[in-house]
Amino acid sequence: MRPAIRFLADELIERIVAEAIELLTTLGVEIHNPQAVDLLASHGAKVSADRFRVYLSEELVRRAIAAAPRSFRLFDVQGRLTHDFTQDAVYFTPGSAALYFLEYPSGQLRRPTTEDYIRYVHLVEQLTYIASQSTAMVPADVPADISDSYRLFLSLLYGRKPVVTGAFSAEGFAVMRDLQLIVRRSQADLEAKPLTIFSACPTSPLRWSYGPSQNLLDCARHGVPVELIAMPLSGFQAPVSLVGTLIQHTAETLSGVVLSQLARPGAPVLYGGSPAIFDVRQETTPMGAMETMMLDCAYCEIGKYLGLPTQAYIGMSDAKQLDAQAGLESGVGAVLAVLARINNVSGPGMLDFENCQSLEKLVLDNELCGMAMRLGAGIQPRDDFPALPLFEELLRERHLLIADHTRRWLKEEIHFPGPVIDRTRRQRWQQQGSPSLLERAHQEAERLIRSAPPSPLGEEVRRELEARMEVEARRFGLDRLPPRPE
């Protein structure tokens, strides 16, 4: 038996979905994209006179849900399977698009650079429980107009794992698609073995701006999986009640499902999001709040009830440093994510309301993910019946350290974390210099970065990636890309 957690009864889920569909049919959704409006109208949706509001019928919504795939798979740059988003599979990926980087040892924030990003990629390649990269931070040493494609460029050039990413504009998709095609070599191979997941974010309440809606259509038409990231804020841009927020989140997400499935029936999509409560005292959106994490788990229950693979931003912290609050909030989130069977969990490494990425925290979060995954595996018999022979051996030998049973099951039964988690005796810890958690995490991050394997890409592919990125950089006034460490 694998442990699980649920927040919603099926009857409540059905009511939430019904209310969300009523919002879409009665209030509609605001869409600032003529192409998307025309697509919806061609399938029977009613359009307002100003052509900015579209009313979706229940039949159209239900048909889109039925058309969306129940699962899909991801592959690394070498075409090897890494993810299979079936019902109970759980994968972790770092939180994405942080504007700031937490410097060690000063603890000061600064804007990330190309070198920071490459070090991040090398680190993620070495983290066992982080299944994919994300475009985790925004390098500030290139023009903002190419920062989306440049992040993907670096991830593909230096890493192996698939990438959770997204375009910052409608125009950014083309070059990001080209970078993937260079790695896969053909559109058919890219569709057969997806390399990335793109985020598409509606605006609360019930609105799609041009860029995200166009990215959603383009991804669907080119076979690029999408995660739908609705972000209602309880008590601010959504009802203060968690159920009310879930109704709004469901409506916004289902509008995205409709757009993707009309663009291309069967387009792979994750039923995702990043809702949060609004802390009226501080005017902040705490991702580490228990209610925020409850919303994440609950909307993923709704997604699974509808038969769709799920995603959530959870397992991160609002703390400003790698401190007790960071461990508390991230650990609780990782455990809840595994127990809720959220398929793609975005969050490791992030601090400060999704604004900051820390390599030291990423190392710690990798360990939290490993512990949470062990919890999710549950308890099962390991040649424990009949029990009598094993206990006879224990009484005879006075220990079971080298017993056949111990050697057979030790590594499967007991999770042993890495050196960032201190399990040494106090005397040994003192002999090692009494290192703090932050110091241990930094030392481990540096060790892993130094031992990162080289890119598996051939020289021709690397040259093509660089040439395509250089063309895009010159379009925005950058004569050459920033220097990169060997």
3D structure, described in words:
The chain is an alpha/beta fold and 486 residues long. The protein has 17 helices and 20 strands. Strand 19 (350-351) and strand 20 (356-357) form a beta hairpin. Helix content is 46%, strand content 12%. It has a domain at 67-377: Alpha-Beta Barrel (TIM Barrel). Helix 10 runs parallel beside helix 11. It has helices at 10-26, 34-42, 58-67, 114-126, 147-158, 172-184, 187-192, 210-221, 242-263, 290-305, 324-339, 359-377, 388-397, 404-413, 426-431, 437-450, 459-475, and strands at residues 29-31, 46-47, 53-55, 73-75, 81-84, 91-93, 100-102, 109-110, 133-134, 163-165, 196-200, 207-208, 226-230, 233-234, 269-273, 276-277, 311-313, 344-346, 350-351, 356-357. The strands form six sheets. It has a five-stranded parallel β-sheet. A four-stranded mixed β-sheet has the order 2-3-1-12. It is globular and about 85 Å long. The longest helix is centred in the middle third of the chain and has 22 residues, at 242-263.
Strand content: 5-15%
Report strand order across the widest sheet.
9-10-11-13-15
CATH homologous superfamily classification of the domain at 67-377: Trimethylamine methyltransferase-like
What is the averaged pLDDT score?
Answer: 97
- Rg over CA atoms: 23 Å
| Biggest sheet features | 5 strands, parallel
Shape call = globular
Instruction: Please tally the β strands and state the result.
Output: 20
Q: Note poorly predicted spans.
A: none
Derived from helix and strand composition plus strand pairing, the structural class reads alpha/beta
